[in-house]
Each structure stands twice: as C-alpha cells, then as structure tokens.
Amino acid sequence: MMSLPGPAHQPSPLHTTAKRGRPPAPISPDAGDSHCAWLEPVRNSLFASRLTLDDLVVRSGYSKTRISQLLRGNDYYPPWEITFSVTRALGLPTRPLRRLWAAAAREARKGDDWIKNCIDQVAHQGEEPPLPYQAFTDDVRGVYTDYARAFLLTDQRAHWVVSEAFDILWVCWGTATASDNLHRYAWQLLRSRVMLRAPCHHDGRPDLRAAVFSTREVHNHSTVPGHFVVLTELIDLFDAITHLPDDQMDAAVLQYLCGTPHQTIAHVLGIAPTLTHAVDHHARATVEALLTTPNPE
Hints:
It comes from Streptomyces erythrogriseus. The protein is mainly α. The chain contains 16 helices and no strands.
C-alpha cells in the first residue's frame, strides 16, 4: 500500500494566476452520469484554483497525458490512485469523492474486486465532514428523500440519489457556502440528480404517473366503487403537475405528494415563505387550466 505525498510545495495564487493555461477539453460524451457526478466538480475546482495541468503534474506525480485523460473522462475509467492524487492536489475531500468514484466505477462495469484493489493501493486517513455541512444535511435529508421517492418510487433509489447529492455537496461545500443562497444551491443540485434518474415522457418531462399508486387516496379507495375514477383523476393531475415551471412543480410535488408544510417548502427550496404561497397559487391556476382544456383530437 502506498502513501502519496501531500501538496507540500504549492505555488502562491499570484504565481498560478499569472500562468493560467488552456483548460482541458470538454468531458467526453461517453462519460456516464455517475462519472460526471465527481468529474464535473473536480474540473470546476481546477478552473477556480487557477492551476494549470503542469501544476497538477508537479503536485500529483502523474503525466500531463494521464491527467488530461482523467479530466476529459475518456479512453478508460481512471483507477482510484490517480483520481486521489489529482483531487488531493486540488485540496478536495477524499471520503465523498471515493464513494462517488466507486459508484461510477460500477457504472463503468468495473468489478467489486477491481474497485477494492484500487482503493487498497492508497493509504488514506478518514476525515469528518464540516459540522455546518452535517447540520445542513441532517436538516434537509427527510424532505429531500421524500421528493426523490416521488419520482424514483423506491426507498432504495431515493436514498441512493440523496446520498450522491450530499457527497457532491460536500465536495463543493466551499462554493455552496459562498453562494448567495445555500439552500437554493443545494436544492438545485439535488433536483438535477433526481431528474437524471427519473422516468421521463418523450418530451423530456418527468413522468409522475406511477407515483399515483403510492398516494393515500388510492390506498384508501382501492376496494370501493369509483376507485378507477379517482385513479384516472389523479393520473391526470400528476401529469399536469409536470407541465409546471420548475419551482411550481417542486412546490406542488412537495405539498401534494409528500405532505410537506408550506413553511418547510420555503425553507428547503431557499425561497421566501410569501413566495411559496404565490408559487402555490400560480401552480393551482395552471394545473386547473391544463385539466379543463380539452385535448386536441
């Protein structure tokens, strides 16, 4: 097991700013969703650091060619050793990146033995998440999971996507806390991960129709006359919700599918409570118009 040296001889910001190099080429379209989950924040961190590929060569001990391949996500899925070296050179946290890297390795059809052997090659010390990050994720985890479950339908998939979003948030915590609205930043991150995995209509809208079968109305009326009328109306309602603008759809999902109170919705979405009521009003009006407009023959 090897122990990699830390970034002991880091050039000052004045030096690195003066010699900003050409950024890496765009991420390969062959990189999967889980691969991009850690690769995008790593690239963003590199751009923000003003470091060049030459700087990373010095700090990581790997060639410019291999680092460039890693940053483009092409040719091969990178072992953990080089991934760790590059991300440590950028000062990024190891624990969430290792989990994200392992998930992407499985997406790339790497076996568990390969993943374990890669991780075992690198000596590392555990690190605890920042306390403010831990408090934040504890605060929003329940609502995030309810929202994810509405689209992904199972507890397992919902918990997995929320954990992925929280790992990305940990990697990006400095950027998130420097943003104008931490709750807004984190919500948009969670939402993007959910939408990547949610079933969709042919026009790209998320498909909420299957969520109908998890609602209280369906369970309470499954054996009484009119059950199919209730079911059809709910399917139409949920389908109409997905036509709403993002904030209105999210508020509607949280309120009507997840039973989230208005005040909590405002808190989690990062918007003012008064705006939550306005969003709900517009959502109701839009959904009613959609439901009462005849479908074209």
